[in-house]
Design goal:
The structure is a homodimer. The first copy, chain A, is built from eight helices and eleven strands. Chain A has about 325 residues and is of the alpha+beta class. In chain A, α2 runs parallel beside α3 and α4 packs across α5. The longest helix of chain A is centred in the N-terminal third of the chain and has 19 residues. At the A-B interface, α1, β1, β2, α2 and β3 of A face α1, β1, β2, α2 and β3 of B.
Chain lengths: ~325, ~325
């Protein structure tokens, strides 16, 4: 690989799907079907901050795209394509091959082809910025400000595993190989419910993806929708590998653990059966964990219906 | 400013134009008018590589957006909106105020509102990644692969100034304050022909923006279009401040100097008058500098119609 252009041609340029213009021009070109809106999001991963230098490049590429696909899912949008801006200290063919193979694999599985981007030399570690583009029926996007009092609160997947894995990998929690083996895949290879999410348009009211921790993220829905919520702690879908850990740590991981990339959404009680059926068909675990109330505030009830005292408020990039 | 969310609210969130959803949800939402395609591009700027730590944050924000707007112009697309992914080592209110004011100013002037993005803490200098979204009439985008033999080759604006300014600022060329004062604004505040470019759809064939140097960038058109070109050096629009410099340096700056962010495009000779009229109306300097030929290869003719010997091939991020 002798130049930026050769690098792009070798590792990243792929024939674009029919009707699209992929890498190699000033812009990528694509169409949004009539009656649909474009949904777009971007997410940046920095070496040393979001990943360590020795991370498996296949895991890194997977996660860089998956966290963005999670943002599309959280709006109920279907992927159209993605862009990759990549800063590298050097051209490492093995690393680039593994990285690009993994990116193209997830892009292919999720119907989100790589359409363009930017490559540049970095003086200070790898920098990865993925932008995703998706389509959603006009007016049907799952926004944060659409929760109604009386809505059920639902969660896809399970909670707590990525937080526990990260604590062990960072040495903040004593390493338990069995627990780590069970939780680490959810940290490194999150699987947002991409096929299920677009089916929520027209059924769900508000939605978002759990990236900073359930309490903080649900708090965004409550603030944007000017309402409150009651959660039932025993109904929260804790990852089974957490069962052997200290109760306080488990609560912290379940309520405030980030990197989950599953959905939290609200929907009228009338849609309970329909939602359960769709989730079953899609192979998505779906848990009804509480409900929206008119009064502001977030209450978590324990098994005896008593409010729990909360100290964990999730993750903030600039605390 | 106490959190990522407060930072976004204070400096970056602005009411989105009617019909769009701006910052604050998982994705931004916008519409592409019927009969149009979406054009999208992304560009990353890294501290130490693309800018120095002490750069005026207003200039930095301007350039981060302007270079992306230039990519839209190069496709003949009109801006719809942009996303900003921003990595910062710390929260510096003065810096953020100047940066965001400048970004919003150019976004407002160019009809490209900031619709979303990502903010994160960086451990290793500032990282800026802007993604722009634009619209272009379906099938009318100015692609690199559309040049025809016989087309005129046109350039907007002037050449050479950013390269000379950068050389002086980096100490690679003896500093001449008069020359620097005249050339530096074109390096720090490039003005791509945003209003003129969409009018080229239907008139021009191929186009791109000059970012890596005329010879290298025109070479992309020739390769993609499987043709060649003849340029007439005396017709190339050299910035007047270069007149006092060494001839070899002037040629290098004009032919291979990057960071220009003006358009190079091809168009049938039948459109000469029309193009000149549109450029005049838009206040854009337009120079006819050569023509496309069927035989591959790029020839630059001097004032006596003799081929010049070329050594400068422009800029490559991974030489």
């Amino acid at each position: 690989v002798t130049s930026e252009f050769a690098l792009i041609a070798r590792y990243f340029a792929r024939p674009a799907p029919s009707g699209m213009l992929g890498p190699g021009d000033d812009c990528a070109l694509l169409s949004v079907p009539d009656g649909h809106e474009l949904a777009v999001a971007t997410d940046m991963l920095l070496e040393g901050r979001h990943f360590l230098p020795d991370i498996d490049p296949a895991d890194l590429a997977y996660k860089a795209l998956a966290v963005n696909l999670s943002d599309l899912a959280a709006m109920g949008a279907q992927p159209l394509g993605c862009l990759l801006a990549l800063g590298l200290e050097m051209v490492d063919p093995d690393w680039l091959q593994r990285f690009s193979d993994s990116l193209h694999a997830l892009a292919g599985e999720s119907g989100c082809p790589l359409l363009g981007g930017d490559t540049t030399r970095s003086l200070q570690g790898r920098v990865i910025c993925v932008t995703v583009l998706g389509q959603v029926p006009r007016g049907r996007a799952l926004r944060r400000d659409a929760a109604h009092p009386g809505d059920d609160i639902w969660i896809t997947g399970v909670l707590g595993a990525p937080d526990i894995a990260l604590r062990m990998l960072q040495g903040r929690l004593a390493r338990d190989e069995a627990v780590l083996a069970a939780t680490r895949p959810l940290l490194e290879r999150p699987e947002p419910p991409l096929a299920f999410a677009p089916q929520l348009c027209g059924l769900a009211h508000a939605a978002l993806d759990i990236s900073d921790g359930l309490l903080q993220d649900l708090g965004h829905i409550l603030k944007a929708s000017a309402c409150g919520a009651v959660l039932r702690y025993p109904h929260l879908p804790e990852h089974p590998a957490l069962a052997t850990l200290e109760p306080a740590l488990r609560r912290q991981a379940v309520l405030a653990g980030g990197d989950v990339y599953q959905l939290c959404f609200t929907a009228p009680a009338a849609h309970r059966e329909r939602l359960a059926g769709l989730a079953g068909d899609a192979g998505v675990r779906l848990s009804r964990v509480g409900h929206i109330v008119a009064e502001p505030g977030l209450t978590v009830l324990d098994a005896d219906d008593r409010p729990m005292t909360l100290s964990a408020r999730g993750f903030d990039h600039f605390p």
